[in-house]
């Protein structure tokens, strides 16, 4: 199935088959739209407007690292849903392979995959999102992940090699952190967890910096938000 995509971000305003795009996606781009067939029926990216989305690719069905990831995503799906975030997966395998794989995961491991898995045999979406190289001899997608916000804007991007699995816990933390900093003009420190303290934004001019009164263990460029 050929997926039709359009890129409406600031760097490419015209509508065209996204497989022809040469500009890589970056943070704060509008995520390219698509319509595709999945294990749970047809979906469009527009279906997820108003909610957060973790859109991720995996190299191939019936492979060990991918199986471990899908079982972990499935176990964590209720936690993603609790923070208003959906899951959407993709590989270039066909729909029947997808269906056979997730059925085998259910039968062998007792894990039900309840999020949609896109088939992309034409590689239109995979190439459009940079999940495979334009001239790649191997059609397998890398472990790419895009966190897309309720306005359809790409807020985080990660690529993992084929033989290294992602951390589902880190993706949960990442979505929660993005939601937290969107609510106020703050930043999350290293290792931040939901409910933890956040940092004030850095001063943007000398007057503001001089007016600040750092406390113990703080500096004008390193201030904790008041509880």
From TrEMBL:
Active site residues of this protein: 66
The entry's keywords: Oxidoreductase
GO (cellular component) term, any one: cytosol
UniProt protein name: Thioredoxin peroxidase
GO molecular function annotations of the record: thioredoxin peroxidase activity
Biological processes annotated in GO: cell redox homeostasis; cellular response to stress; hydrogen peroxide catabolic process; response to oxidative stress
Pfam families hit by this protein: AhpC-TSA
Family, similarity comment: Belongs to the peroxiredoxin family. AhpC/Prx1 subfamily.
Lineage: Bacteria, Pseudomonadati, Pseudomonadota, Gammaproteobacteria, Lysobacterales
InterPro entries (UniProt xref): AhpC/TSA (IPR000866), Peroxiredoxin (IPR050217), Peroxiredoxin_AhpC-typ (IPR024706), Thioredoxin-like_sf (IPR036249), Thioredoxin_domain (IPR013766)
Record-linked Gene3D superfamilies: Glutaredoxin (3.40.30.10)
Thioredoxin domain location: 25-180
Role according to the record: Thiol-specific peroxidase that catalyzes the reduction of hydrogen peroxide and organic hydroperoxides to water and alcohols, respectively. Plays a role in cell protection against oxidative stress by detoxifying peroxides.
